[in-house]
Design a protein that fits this description.
The protein is globular, with a radius of gyration of 21 Å. It is built from 18 helices and 13 strands. The protein has a single domain, classed as nicotinate phosphoribosyltransferase (Alpha-Beta Barrel), CATH 3.20.140.
Length: 430
C-alpha cells in the first residue's frame, strides 16, 4: 500500500500530477457527456469555479504558477488504449457497451480546451468557455486540482514524521467510521468523494479501506480511474448541470417550466434500470414532484441531495405512494453532506421502507477536521457550476437557498416559473 506521508513529503508535480488520466473523473460525467454528445454538443456553455467558503483565501494559499502547471498538464492528457478498452468492454450497471462506439471515438480524440484564470482579491476566477461537450469535462479535474493544491499548501512545511502522524490519525478516523457502518444491516454505500477529495492517493486509500472494511456493503466508487484500477463498480447517474443548461436554452417561460422533464425524457432514451434516478431539487423538489408527468414515477429511484434529508426522504415516499408506486421497490440515494451520524440516522429511519443507498462524499475523502493547526486542512465548500449557455445565464435554486446560483433577477424569475415558496436556509459545510 502506498506510503502517503512519504509521497506527500517528497511530491513533485511532474512525477506525481494531481490528475493522472482523462478517467480521473466521476462516472456521471461520462454518462452525461454521452447525452450531451448526442443532442447538444455544440451549445456554448461556460463553467466557473465558485468558492462558497469565502473565508478560505485560495489565491493567497495556492500558488498561481502551480495551479497553471496542473491545469496545463491536464490539457496534455488523452485516453489510453487500456482505458478505452475498459470503457468499451466493461459491464456497467449490468450492461455491456454502455457507451456507443461514436462517443468512445470522440472521447479517444478529446483534449481539454483552454481555460481562463485570474486573481480576484483573495480568490481565483477560473472559467471554461466553449462547446458544452468539451467544457463539461473540466468540472471534476478542476475541483480536484484546487483541493489538492490547497492540501499541499497546508502540508508543505510539515516534516515526514509529522505527516505520518497526520495520516495515521486520519486513517484511524476513517476506519472507526467504517466499523460503525458495518453494524448497519443491508447497508449499500458508495464513494462519491472525487470532487472535493484531499488528494488522489487519499481517495484511493479510502476506497481500499471501504473494500476491506465493508465488503459487499460497499457498492463502488464514482471515480472511473480508481474503479478501473481497483476492479470495483463505477457508480453514478446525473447532476444539476443538465437541467441548468436545458433551462438556460429555453426560449420562454413555458419551455423553462418543461426543461427539467425534457432532461428526463432524453435520459431515458439513453439509459435504463438503476441509471433512471431522478434528481428533483434543481429548482425545488416540491414543485418538481408535484408537476412531474406520470411516467416519471415509473423511474427506478430518486436522489435526495439538498434540504433536510429526513424530511426529503418522507416526501419522496409520500410522492411514490400518491403516484401508485410501492416505495419498498424504489431506490432512494442520499448524497448531501453525509457522515456517519447522519447515515446511521437515515438508515434507522428508512431501511425497509425503501431501497436505501448512500453516496458518501467529502467527509469520506477529506475529513481532516481538527487534525491541523487552526483547522487549515478542514474541508470547505467549492463547486464548479454552469454560468451560462448560449449567452443566457444559468440558474440553480436547490432545496437550500444557500446553494442558489445565478443572477438575482434570474433567480427571482425561476422562483416564479417553478412556483418556489418559502425555503429554510441551512449552512453548507461541504
Amino acid at each position: 500500500m502506498t506510503d502517503i506521508a512519504s509521497r506527500v513529503n517528497n511530491h513533485n508535480w511532474k512525477i506525481d500530477p494531481i490528475v493522472r488520466s482523462v478517467l480521473d473523473t466521476d462516472f456521471y460525467k461520462l454518462l452525461m457527456a454521452q447525452t450531451i454528445f448526442r443532442r447538444h454538443r455544440n451549445a456554448t456553455v461556460t463553467f466557473g469555479i465558485i468558492n462558497r467558503s469565502r473565508t478560505v483565501p485560495l489565491a493567497k494559499m495556492v500558488d498561481k504558477g502551480a495551479l497553471k502547471e496542473q491545469l496545463d498538464h491536464i490539457r496534455t492528457l488523452s485516453l489510453s488504449r487500456g482505458e478505452s478498452t475498459w470503457l468499451r468492454g466493461n459491464m456497467f450497471y449490468g450492461k455491456r457497451q454502455m457507451f456507443s462506439p461514436e462517443f468512445i471515438a470522440w472521447l479517444e480524440g478529446f483534449r481539454f480546451p483552454a481555460y481562463h484564470l485570474e486573481e480576484r482579491g483573495d480568490q481565483y476566477e477560473l472559467t471554461f468557455e466553449g462547446p458544452w461537450i468539451e467544457t463539461t469535462m473540466w468540472e471534476i479535474p478542476a475541483l480536484a486540482v484546487i483541493m489538492e493544491l490547497h492540501a499541499r499548501a497546508v502540508t508543505k512545511d510539515m516534516a515526514k514524521f509529522e505527516l505520518q502522524v497526520l495520516y495515521a490519525r486520519a486513517m484511524t478516523r476513517v476506519w472507526e467510521k467504517l466499523e460503525r457502518l458495518r453494524q448497519l444491516p443491508d447497508l449499500r454505500i458508495a464513494d462519491f468523494g472525487t470532487r472535493r477529495r484531499h488528494g488522489f492517493l487519499w481517495q484511493d486509500w479510502c476506497v481500499q479501506a471501504m473494500q476491506e472494511g465493508l465488503g459487499p456493503r460497499f457498492l463502488g466508487t464514482s471515480n472511473c480511474l480508481i474503479a478501473m484500477r481497483r476492479e470495483v463498480e463505477a457508480i453514478g447517474t446525473n447532476a444539476h448541470e443538465l437541467p441548468m443548461v436545458y433551462s438556460a436554452l429555453a426560449r420562454n417561460d413555458a419551455e423553462l417550466a418543461e426543461a427539467p422533464y425534457a432532461v428526463l425524457a432524453d435520459w431515458q432514451q439513453d439509459y435504463d434500470g438503476n441509471l433512471r434516478v431522478i434528481l428533483p431539487d434543481t429548482y425545488g423538489s416540491d414543485g418538481f414532484l408535484e408537476n412531474a408527468p406520470d411516467w416519471v414515477a415509473n423511474w427506478t429511484g430518486i436522489r435526495v441531495d439538498s434540504g433536510d434529508p429526513l424530511e426529503g426522504g418522507e416526501k419522496v415516499i409520500a410522492w411514490w405512494q400518491k403516484r401508485g408506486q410501492d416505495p419498498r421497490s424504489k431506490l432512494a440515494i442520499f448524497s448531501d453532506g453525509l457522515d456517519v451520524d447522519l447515515i446511521e440516522e437515515l438508515h434507522n429511519r428508512f431501511n425497509g421502507r425503501i431501497r436505501l443507498g448512500f453516496g458518501w462524499g467529502t467527509l469520506l475523502t477529506n475529513d481532516f477536521r481538527g487534525l491541523s493547526a487552526n483547522g487549515r486542512l478542514d474541508p470547505f465548500s467549492i463547486v464548479c457550476k454552469v454560468i451560462s449557455a448560449n449567452g443566457r445565464p444559468a440558474v440553480k435554486l436547490s432545496d437550500n437557498p444557500t446553494k442558489a446560483v445565478g443572477p438575482e433577477t434570474e433567480i427571482e424569475r425561476y422562483r416564479r416559473v417553478f412556483r418556489v415558496g418559502a425555503q429554510a436556509a441551512a449552512p453548507v459545510l461541504v
